[in-house]
Design brief:
The chain has about 375 residues and is mainly β. It has four helices and 27 strands. The strands form five sheets. Strands 3, 5, 6, 11, 13, 15, 20, 21, 22, 23 and 27 form an eleven-stranded mixed sheet that branches. Strands 1, 2, 4, 7, 8, 9, 10 and 12 form an eight-stranded antiparallel sheet that branches. A four-stranded antiparallel sheet has the order 14-24-16-17, with no helix packed on it. Strand 8 and strand 9 form a beta hairpin.
Length: about 375
Amino acid sequence: MFDFTGGSLGTLAYAKHGKSRAINAENPTGEKGKGGMTASHLGASRKGSPCLHDIKSGETVTLAEMEGPGVINHIWVTVTDKTTEADCFVLRDLVLRMYWDDETEPSVESPLGDFFCCGFGRECIVNSLPMAVVPSRGMNCYFQMPFRKKARITLENQHANPIPAFFYQVDYCLYDTLPDDISYFHAQWRREKITKLGEDYVILDKVKGKGHYVGTYMALTTLERYWWGEGEIKFYLDGDEAYPTICGTGTEDYFGGSWSFARQVDGRTVEQNYCTPYLGYPYYSAHDTAVHNFYHNDDCPPMRGFYRWHIQDPVCFEEDLRVTIQQIGVGHRGLFERQDDVASVAYWYQAEPHNTFPVLMDKEERWPR
């Protein structure tokens, strides 16, 4: 029997009914009584296999594969962010995919960093309920991911060089049965390097079936001056066409902020970063922090990363879902249509089967500006 209350402080005293397992490089099958068997120079069962070594360029490795019924409760990973000064976008070059039951098309497909709210190939501290990223690049996901027959998680190395070490753990529970109406976890990455003038950026489209939308990560690179955050997010539900059922009031409003996140510092307007359990603005930079070069400065277009979790307020749909956000700014002459560089991850649950995702951009097209 699956216990939906497993993550609540108020229900910790209640008996749990799963069988706890974990998959990592020390126990790649998650088998009972088979953890930490590999020997090191320290002896038997002394950190003999703490990570995956030398994942070749172009190689896809299976991080975890397990038979159900079960629920993944936590995923932890860490990896370097660069292999050379020139090859410094590891977090965009590695592609995370997840498959449920007998799927051949992934239900989750995203660059590794973006999935954990670290866009632009850069790490940042994220302190939220379902995602937490702590120093240095300790990336954690707590979204529950049920599966009836099988779960498979893969990592594709599209980076130019081998990945010297990849550390990870997948914590899950096995159950006798799952509820009939259980929904499956999905996540999809998209990007428009230059949005179309006057057209909404599409966060998610062509979702068919019953489900609920649970979160958005957005990596925004602003290409024009003045305030960028007036665009409204729209949720088109169950046959909506010209107009959505849910339309927000602005980009910074959707991510829980107001009045441009602004404070005054020495006569300048400075946006403030923040992290809360359900919404946050964890990343801002207008500089290339990955490498130092003696012959050019480190200026970049301003990069901003945001998350918004619909945990207390899931967006429910019965038949179909489309999610978009406008690119509207405001300056001294008022509102205006903008063109910026927008990437996003949409997170949702739905009944299977799901529609095939759009083809993922080549790695060079995923790199930040």
